């Protein structure tokens, strides 16, 4: 049986719950419908989070994202709804969802929604020297 869209988000146990680490996902095929015109809206979603005890399972995330394909939603509402559902499923330390919608009527729309677990503070960032491209080449 082929996969079907689903609002169910599955999780799995974080293999390193004692460590803050950053998970970054790019979801380039998000589609929903404009609630005013019924025309499709397309976006790339960028999900960044620091898990606590649970991580989101990728196939369920794909089917969840697919479930919006035939739903009407304003960009602001759908971005926040997706973030709320992901936070409910995973209870992360931190999560940010950035939705970059493609042009509609000459306007690009970007919506950024964040969740911070109360009391959680990120550790200080350690800045490392960036290596220029091809830095290991001699000659």
From TrEMBL:
The active site is at 34 (thioimide intermediate), 41 (proton donor). Keywords: Cytoplasm, NADP, Oxidoreductase, Queuosine biosynthesis. SUPFAM superfamilies: Tetrahydrobiopterin biosynthesis enzymes-like. It is found in: Cytoplasm. InterPro entries: GTP-CH-I_C/QueF, NADPH_dep_7-cyano-7-deazaG_red, QueF, QueF_type1. Substrate binds at residues 56-58, 75-76. It holds the Pfam family QueF. Its main location: cytoplasm. It comes from the Bacteria. Pathway: tRNA modification; tRNA-queuosine biosynthesis. GO terms for molecular function: preQ1 synthase activity. Its EC number is 1.7.1.13. Transmembrane segments: none annotated. It catalyses: 7-aminomethyl-7-carbaguanine + 2 NADP(+) = 7-cyano-7-carbaguanine + 2 NADPH + 3 H(+). Belongs to the GTP cyclohydrolase I family. QueF type 1 subfamily. Catalyzes the NADPH-dependent reduction of 7-cyano-7-deazaguanine (preQ0) to 7-aminomethyl-7-deazaguanine (preQ1). This is NADPH-dependent 7-cyano-7-deazaguanine reductase. It comes from Thiobacter aerophilum.
């Amino acid at each position: 049986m082929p996969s079907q869209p689903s609002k169910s988000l599955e999780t799995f146990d974080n293999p390193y719950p004692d460590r803050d680490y950053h998970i970054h996902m790019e979801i380039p095929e998000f589609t929903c419908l404009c609630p005013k015109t019924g025309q499709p809206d397309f976006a790339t979603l960028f999900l960044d989070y620091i898990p606590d005890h649970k991580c989101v399972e990728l196939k369920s995330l794909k089917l969840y994202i697919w479930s919006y394909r035939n739903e009407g939603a304003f960009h602001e509402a759908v971005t926040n709804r997706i973030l709320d559902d992901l936070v409910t499923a995973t209870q992360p330390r931190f999560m940010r969802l950035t939705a970059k919608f493609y042009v509609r009527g000459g306007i690009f729309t970007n919506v950024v929604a964040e969740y911070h677990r109360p009391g959680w503070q990120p550790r200080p960032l350690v800045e490392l020297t960036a290596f220029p491209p091809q830095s290991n080449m001699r000659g």
